[in-house]
């Protein structure tokens, strides 16, 4: 049965534009939806540590089908292709920039949609299976995740505290490296906020680190954030 399915797909791959029928279009569209669903599941499984967006999951399902329909409508008509490019050029995407991994999945679904629209069904299936498998394998390997993550430490101190080297003992104990990047005043100069870039030691507790800092800054506010959130926290 598998051989017959593969033979049917190969026959569709070799079909010319003049041989295109409604049946072939439905097969291409159905396969694009199926592969989009597969890619969406792969994205969900490899993004389990982050909040998953339902709208993005639905987009991954529908995008290959939409792209394949566009390719089937354009075909070899150059004038239609240029008109389509002009129509897409006026679209403005107002959503927030996505995660690089999400952008990869969007490009992935577009490639699958293009393959389905062009009738390269077997190639689309093979590409989807291989790339989904690679993404899952890289996620299981935790590939590219740095062992020691750089973070931003913000310590609020009273104005009468000399901050020079006062926290060096604690920082040397709990961090691999640290540097004072910024000092600013708040509450009309009654308080100072020190901003450090720190790289934590894996074997030590962040809670113990913060507790020891609190003993030296008069139990005022202390914030420890990931480096990727620096832009938000510095405002």
Describe the SSE topology.
Blueprint: H1 2-13, H2 22-46, H3 54-74, H4 78-89, H5 100-117, H6 121-140, E1 150-158, H7 168-174, E2 175-186, E3 191-200, H8 206-214, E4 222-226, H9 230-233
Helix pairs in contact: 2-3, 2-5, 2-6, 3-5, 5-6
Supply Rg: 27 Å
Strand content: 15-25%
Share of helical residues: 40-55%
- Total beta strand runs: 4
Low-confidence segments, given as residue ranges, are: 15-19, 228-235
Query: Average pLDDT across residues?
Result: 76
User: Biggest β-sheet: count, sense, barrel?
Assistant: 4 strands, antiparallel
End-to-end separation? 62 Å
Can you tell me the overall shape?
elongated
Provide the structure class.
alpha+beta
Strand order of the largest sheet: 2-3-1-4
Helical run tally: 9
Describe this protein's structure.
The protein is 54% helix and 15% strand. The model is unreliable at 15-19 and 228-235 (pLDDT under 50). A hairpin with a 4-residue loop joins strand 2 and strand 3 (191-200). Helix 2 (22-46) packs antiparallel against helix 3 (54-74) and helix 3 (54-74) packs parallel to helix 5 (100-117). The chain has helices at residues 2-13, 22-46, 54-74, 78-89, 100-117, 121-140, 168-174, 206-214, 230-233; strands spanning 150-158, 175-186, 191-200, 222-226. With 235 residues, the chain is an alpha+beta fold. Strands 2-3-1-4 form a four-stranded antiparallel beta sheet, covered by helices on one side.
Task: Give descriptors for this structure.
235 residues; 15% strand
Produce a short descriptive summary.
By secondary structure, this protein is an alpha+beta fold.
């Amino acid at each position: 049965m598998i051989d017959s399915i593969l033979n049917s797909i190969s026959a569709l791959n070799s079909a010319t534009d003049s041989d295109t029928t409604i049946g072939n279009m439905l097969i291409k569209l159905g396969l694009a939806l199926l592969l989009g669903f597969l890619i969406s599941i792969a994205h969900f499984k490899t993004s389990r540590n982050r909040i998953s967006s339902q709208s993005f999951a639905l987009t991954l399902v529908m995008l290959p089908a939409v792209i394949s329909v566009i390719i089937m409508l354009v075909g070899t008509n150059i004038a239609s292709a240029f008109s389509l490019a002009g129509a897409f050029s006026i679209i403005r995407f107002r959503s927030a920039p996505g995660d690089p991994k999400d952008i990869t999945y969007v490009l992935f679904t577009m490639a699958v949609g293009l393959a389905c629209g062009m009738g390269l069904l077997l190639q689309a299936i093979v590409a989807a299976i291989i790339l989904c498998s690679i993404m899952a394998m890289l996620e299981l390997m935790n590939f590219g995740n740095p062992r020691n993550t750089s973070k931003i430490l913000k310590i609020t101190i009273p104005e009468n505290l000399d901050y020079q080297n006062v926290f060096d003992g604690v920082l040397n104990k709990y961090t691999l490296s640290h540097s004072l990047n910024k000092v600013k005043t708040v509450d009309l100069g009654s308080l100072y906020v020190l901003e450090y870039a720190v790289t934590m030691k894996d074997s030590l507790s962040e809670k113990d680190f913060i507790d020891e800092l609190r003993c030296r800054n008069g139990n005022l506010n202390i914030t420890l954030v990931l480096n990727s959130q620096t832009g938000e926290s510095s405002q």
